[in-house]
Specification:
Layout lengths: L1 E5 L3 H14 L4 E6 L2 H10 L5 E5 L1 E2 L2 E2 L1 H6 L6 E5 L5 H6 L4 E4 L4 H14 L14 H9 L5 E6 L2 E6 L3 E7 L2 E6 L4 E4 L3 H7 L5 E3 L4 E4 L3 E7 L2 E6 L6 E3 L4 H9 L1
Length: about 250
């Protein structure tokens, strides 16, 4: 069986590859792509995979944009941290829909479905249309439910509801949860901000994104302002350009 993995988080893609090879010996992972553009290029340059595991939210858009632009005959297993895409995914005749973090039980179910259908394929010409604007609209209204982080060689899910702040860290970002634990991600702060509900989170500087409900107090300090968050020992400085916005949002 030849498999294509479409996933923008390298750790998640590598973990999925290991699980597939463990559960389905002899499987060949013939490609791993992180974005809509890279996947379109791969599809134009390679043969048709037997099965595609496809994340929905990618670096540069939604995977439904791929289906709108290319004929794909391969069965698809959608993998995502978001539950809000299920109906759209099944409308695309996917054989399964796996919520992250993917566990062996669910992956076994998806592989058995593939085997049961005997490599069933349906041309994307028979699928409903997926206009890019519809995908973009769905993206704006669906936010990240959890993140998959690495700790001591193991992958751990961190729910978005437990995150009190995110800060820029090295070339990626660092999640901070309500217990003060810190988790490093490859994603940039801008990518994390886009994935979280703006009703719950607010950007207070180029380095920090905070959960509004976690704010304990806003202090005037050294000619500027700092925020105290429940669960975080250090005070976080607010950029001058963000002070007015944060005051208004905390007063709302």
């Amino acid at each position: 069986m030849k498999v294509l993995i479409v996933e923008d988080e390298p750790r998640a893609a590598n973990r999925l590859e290991r699980l597939i090879e463990e559960l389905q010996p002899g499987t060949e992972i013939i490609g791993k792509t992180p974005s809509v553009a890279a996947t379109l290029l791969w599809l134009d340059s390679n043969g048709t995979p037997d099965l595609i595991f496809m994340d929905i939210r990618l670096e540069d858009g939604d995977s439904f944009e791929i289906l709108a632009k290319r004929r794909i005959d391969s069965p698809i297993v959608f993998c995502t941290a978001y539950s809000g895409y299920a109906l759209q995914a099944f409308a695309a005749n996917s054989i399964d829909y796996l919520l992250k973090p993917i566990v062996r039980r669910d992956l076994i179910r998806a592989l058995r479905k593939y085997q049961k259908f005997g490599g069933f394929r349906m041309s994307s010409n028979e699928w409903p249309d997926f206009p890019a604007e519809d995908a973009a609209k769905s993206r704006r209204n669906t936010y990240r439910q959890q993140f998959l982080v690495a700790l001591a060689g193991h992958f751990t899910p961190v729910r978005s509801t437990d995150v009190i702040a995110v800060r820029s860290y090295l070339k990626g970002s660092q999640l901070i949860d309500k217990n003060g634990r810190q988790w490093v991600l490859d994603n940039s702060l801008a990518e994390i901000e886009e994935a979280l509900d703006p009703e719950d989170f607010c950007r207070i500087s180029r380095q920090w994104l905070i959960r509004l409900s976690a704010v304990s107090s806003l202090l005037k300090s050294d000619g500027g302002y700092k925020i105290i968050l429940n669960g975080l020992a250090e005070a976080v400085r607010v950029s001058r350009s963000r002070v007015k916005e944060i005051k208004a949002r905390l007063a709302a």
